[in-house]
Automatic annotation (TrEMBL):
SUPFAM superfamilies in the record: Thioredoxin-like
Protein name: Altered inheritance of mitochondria protein 32
Protein family membership: Belongs to the AIM32 family.
InterPro entries, per database record: Aim32/Apd1-like (IPR009737), Thioredoxin-like_sf (IPR036249)
Species, as recorded: Candida oxycetoniae
Length: 315
């Protein structure tokens, strides 16, 4: 049964702000799901960095755009730079960077959920393969799932994403192909045009589940490609055993930075109010998943040794 897209005005008020607490380390697992202790072998030149302190090792975005519709639902097939993959929403957003430049602090990622096509079809009424123009985006911390046609990408950016003023900064050290420079110069010469947004082009519903995604972008870095699927599958099994699998979207995400700190896990609870609630972890392995579910998902505690944000904001 397809879940009807609900009007935001009919939804109940969001719950109170999360009071995050800190805990030093992740508890050891108490059972084996079958791959709890799986440990991939990494190439000699692609080892995990266990030396660096993870505190402030990532600049967590103020706004995060998660694209669920793309040309393939297998993360291992994704191009190394998703923004250069023609036909994707990330590529369309990139092509509009001079017309509607996105403000600093906004990240655009693509995600693939477990049972991805079923989720899109049954929960949001999208069959991306029969109509690839249809797009579905999760927007955080707005907690909105937004459905629209890719032809309205400029309107989407204007309506939902902060923009910055168009500027040209000369960088003598940045090398570009001649055709790229000519295209950019042509775009910059065009007069700025106001983009009229028709709200009828967008269907919104509130996100009412947690999101747990692990970087599995294999063509960008093999460490993420090896660890991502293992961690994702472990979350699926542990959440099922704990009886809370239906409360979460679980999957993989494209490059978020910090390959050397794989596995990189992002937890966005359904109670998100701001990027203060974006929990980014690094150096996560399948054996850590039970502890993360218990401490972070269920009890809203941040594991200090794994946290890639700024711990001082939670003390």
């Amino acid at each position: 049964m397809i879940r009807l897209l609900r009007s935001l005005s009919t939804l109940s008020p969001r719950s109170a702000e999360i009071q995050w607490r800190l805990v030093e380390s992740v508890p050891a697992p108490t059972y084996n799901t079958g791959c709890t202790f799986c440990q991939p072998t990494f190439p000699p030149d692609k080892q995990i960095n266990f030396d660096q302190n993870l505190n402030k090792s990532s600049r967590i975005p103020a706004k995060h755009v998660m694209v669920l519709t793309t040309k393939d639902n297998k993360m291992e097939h994704f191009e190394s730079k998703i923004e250069n993959w023609k036909g994707t929403l990330s590529n369309e957003i990139g092509k509009l960077k001079h017309k509607v430049p996105i403000a600093e602090g906004t990240s655009v990622s693509s995600i693939v959920l477990q049972n991805h096509d079923t989720v899109l079809q049954e929960e949001f009424g999208i069959n991306h393969y029969s109509n690839p123009q249809h797009q579905l985006v999760f927007l955080y911390p707005d907690m909105k799932a937004i459905k629209f046609d890719i032809m309205y990408t400029d309107q989407f950016i204007t309506k939902y994403i902060p923009q910055t003023q168009k500027t040209t900064v000369f960088n003598p050290f940045k090398k570009k192909r001649v055709e790229e420079e000519e295209e950019e110069e042509e775009e910059m010469r065009k007069p700025a045009q106001e983009i009229n947004v028709d709200d009828a082009n967008f269907q919104e519903t509130m996100i009412d589940k947690d999101l747990i995604v692990t970087c599995g972008h294999a063509k960008r870095d093999i460490r993420c490609g090896l660890l991502g699927p293992l961690i994702t599958n472990e979350f699926d099994k542990v959440l099922r055993k704990e009886g809370i699998r239906d409360d979460s979207y679980v999957g993989e995400i494209t490059h978020i930075g910090g390959h050397a700190f794989a596995g990189n896990v992002l937890y966005y609870p359904k109670q998100c109010k701001s990027n203060h609630d974006f929990i980014w972890y690094g150096r996560v392995f399948p054996k850590d998943v039970q502890g993360l579910v218990e401490e972070t998902v269920k009890n809203k505690k941040i594991i200090q040794r794994l946290f890639r944000g700024d711990l001082s904001k939670y003390q």
